[in-house]
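[Discussion] Sanity-checking designs against the backbone

I'm trying to build intuition for which residues belong where. Below is a structure token string of 264 positions. I'd appreciate it if someone posts a full sequence so I can compare it with mine line by line.
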């Protein structure tokens, strides 16, 4: 039985001829341009719809979260006005442009008032910090360590008291510079000591360690200098200073200087 005259065969033949026409249809620049323009317009419309949706959500949030005051109208052309706070529109002729009554409560105005109230103000702690910075301006030195800024207080555990008191200080954000390349070096310094009659005061130690930030020195020389300055200041029973420097070229250097015995 032949199938060449069947409806299915006729349908397939018609489909094949349509595909063939599409494949062999000459290129029309005008049609292609129109298609591109239409696609661009459709994308712009989608973008506008998305923007309108965001604005609507923002307006609903203001209405639900912030009970407002009177609208603050401003002219936007002709007899139309817009609220500066919630952006609602009002038209004198009460047409489709009217989205809200003229004397209704504004949901957005209170938002601006609260934002004004939330502007940063001067606070006493910040004032104290600025005064401290101004008073110590001459001591904040970053390019040459100065042992003269180091201070001490009397040890609460004198050497005649029974037992020993060891003090451990960590300086986790120490920085200095390589004296050859000028590149920064990072380290954690660990200072341990058994006091004799004096303990180092913490802020003065911080100011002293800050003096190495822009100072060019080798790891070993830096550690030795800190050790000698603390030895001269404290005259402790035992002192150990270790600089745990981050690796450079894959090699971390941890120079260490020590004096005396930690415990008898």
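Best answer:
Here's mine. Compare freely.
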């Amino acid at each position: 039985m032949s199938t060449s005259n069947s409806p299915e065969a006729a349908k397939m033949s018609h489909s094949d001829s349509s595909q063939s026409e599409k494949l062999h249809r000459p290129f029309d620049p005008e049609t292609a341009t129109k298609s591109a323009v239409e696609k661009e317009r459709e994308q712009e419309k989608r973008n506008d719809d998305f923007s309108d949706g965001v604005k609507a959500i923002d307006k609903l949030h203001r209405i639900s979260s912030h009970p407002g005051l009177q609208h603050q109208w401003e002219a936007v052309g002709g007899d139309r006005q817009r609220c500066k706070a919630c952006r609602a529109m009002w038209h004198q002729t009460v047409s489709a442009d009217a989205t809200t009554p003229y004397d209704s409560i504004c949901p957005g105005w209170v938002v601006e008032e609260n934002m004004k109230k939330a502007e940063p103000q001067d606070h006493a702690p910040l004032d104290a910090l600025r005064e401290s910075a101004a008073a110590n301006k001459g001591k904040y030195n970053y390019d040459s360590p100065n042992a003269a800024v180091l201070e001490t207080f009397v040890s609460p555990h004198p050497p005649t008291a029974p037992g020993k008191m060891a003090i451990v200080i960590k300086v986790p954000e120490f920085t200095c510079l390589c004296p050859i390349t000028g590149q920064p070096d990072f380290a954690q310094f660990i200072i341990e000591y058994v006091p004799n009659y004096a303990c180092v005061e913490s802020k003065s130690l911080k100011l002293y360690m800050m003096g190495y930030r822009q100072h060019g020195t080798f790891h070993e020389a830096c550690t030795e200098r800190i050790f000698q300055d603390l030895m001269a200041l404290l005259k402790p029973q035992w002192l150990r200073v270790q600089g745990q420097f981050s690796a450079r070229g894959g090699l971390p250097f941890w120079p260490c200087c020590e004096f005396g015995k930690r415990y008898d």
